[in-house]
Design goal:
By secondary structure, the protein is mostly beta strands. The chain has a domain of 90 residues: Jelly Rolls (Sandwich). The protein has one helix and 13 strands. The strands form four sheets. A six-stranded antiparallel beta sheet has the order 1-3-4-12-7-10, with no helix packed on it. Strands 9-8-11 form a three-stranded antiparallel beta sheet, with no helix packed on it. A two-stranded antiparallel sheet has the order 2-5.
Length: 134
């Protein structure tokens, strides 16, 4: 399977996401864009663990490559440039790159309430991830 490259001319790849590496399968990179906006770059096959944002809405804007977003108990949604996902507070979910493509998304939080937090959960199993297709 040939891996698709991403044009990083428009969006910075960022630095290795060492602080959150324990919550990812594969390598990701983080670029602080300012004002609470971050660009996250996922190498092919990289995904984060299931997680929940409490008392805040997470917004994802896919800007390059191809990947996946999935809420617990629902079908996965393909991420490709221009796809915007607003994840309600309290929803268990994960996101990451496709097996054969890098993926970048911008992320920020809105409607942030006092006591907002992230709860990191179990990894996305290979069974779930490998079942995804174009």
């Amino acid at each position: 399977m040939e891996k698709q490259q991403v044009d990083f001319n428009s969006w910075p790849k960022g630095e290795p996401n060492i602080a959150y590496a324990q919550y990812f399968i594969g390598n990701s990179y983080l670029a602080d864009m300012g004002g609470g906006l971050f660009n996250v770059t996922f190498e092919p096959g990289c995904r984060n663990n299931w997680h929940i944002h409490h008392k805040q809405v997470q917004v994802l804007v896919c800007v390059a490559g191809r990947g996946w977003y999935q809420e617990w108990g629902k079908e996965a949604v393909e991420l490709k440039p221009g796809v915007v996902i607003a994840i309600p507070a309290g929803v268990k979910h994960w996101h990451g790159a496709a097996k054969d493509s890098w993926m970048q998304h911008l992320t920020y939080h809105k409607d942030v309430q006092d006591g907002a937090s992230n709860e990191w959960l179990e990894p996305v199993t290979d069974e779930i991830y490998n079942s995804l297709s174009r």
